[in-house]
Amino acid sequence: MYTVVYKRALNPTVTEMKVSAPLVAKRAEPGQFIILRVDEDGERIPLTVADYDREAGTVTIIFQTVGATTMKLAAKNVGDQIADFVGPLGRPTETEGLSSVAVIGGGVGCAIAYPVAKKLHTLGAAVHTVVGFRTRELVILEDEFRAVSDTFCLMSDDGTAGERGLVTDALRRALDSGEHFDEVIAIGPLPMMKFVCKLTKEYNVKTVVSMNPIMIDGTGMCGCCRLTVGGEMKFACVDGPDFDGHLVDFDEAMSRAAMYREFESRARDRACNLLRAEVK
Predict the structure, then answer these.
(1) pTM
(2) Scanning 102, 114, 137, 180, which has its CA 20 to 30 A from the CA of 144?
(3) Mean per-residue pLDDT for 89-101?
(4) Range of 243's domain?
(5) What is the model's pLDDT at position 79?
């Protein structure tokens, strides 16, 4: 069992937790993920390592309550235990040898982008961060990003946080102004990553994307995170989750992701009914 040692709400649907997992914390790196089961009867889900403290032996996870398992996880409090917490899994994001990087985060994907920006900052790279959200209420990790960024730009669809517009608007402005980036790292919803890659291809800037959003079981066995990269079949969980964004077939990935919405909706409804029954 793994104990929840810290919990806070980052916005109405996103929760941050620190879990005591010394062996995972000892080896975790940005870009990797863990697989957990909330209880012995629960399903296995992958969640990205949002941060880690090797001395304290804790691993931070940030998740959005969207389905049955995340609902159960969000109901856990400090002192409660999680049945399984396995990792780190996946390939770490390559951060060595980069002197100037643009880190682009969208929505809850910022939880994955933050540890990457933090590691780059620690290594001495110039970090240009652009994060985007629909509205002020949904903003997460703003202070944390500011602390590890040489340049920080906050965007929102409705203008209630930072500047009104899309992350691609701020990125294009930076590129047009002459900013040089060794690499752009984009993490967020599939449509956001698709259009970031479409933009950076115009400027011939290497772009890495994290395909965490399409992972389900984290082992490659379910086949749900299958995608096409440069004409070849890959699995996000075992071959990635990071890939050359200019080679990813985003349209295919988005089409596949939409296949599971009805199943996820039914599972969420069942979880709601079970939680209500437990409360009664």
Answers:
(1) 0.83
(2) 180
(3) 90
(4) 100-258
(5) 95
Q: Give residue-wise pLDDT tens across range 202-215.
A: 999 999 998 866 55
> DSSP letters of the chain?
-EEEEEEEEEETTEEEEEEE-HHHHHH--TT-EEEEESSTTSPPEEEEEEEEETTTTEEEEEEE--SHHHHHHHT--TT-EESEEEEEESPPPP-TT-SEEEEEEEGGGHHHHHHHHHHHHHTT-EEEEEEEESSGGG--SHHHHHHH-SEEEEEESSSSSSEES-HHHHHHHHHHTT---SEEEEES-HHHHHHHHHHHHHTT--EEEE-GGG-SSSSSSS-TTEEEETTEEEEHHHH-SEEEGGGB-HHHHHHHHGGGHHHHHHHHHHHHHHHHHHH-
State how far the Cα of 185 lies from the Cα of 126, in Å rounded to an integer. 13
For the cut 90, the answer to whether the pLDDT of residue 26 exceeds it is yes
- The CATH number of residue 62's host domain is 2.40.30.10
Residue 264 pLDDT more than 60?
Answer: no
The domain that contains 158 carries what CATH number?
3.40.50.80
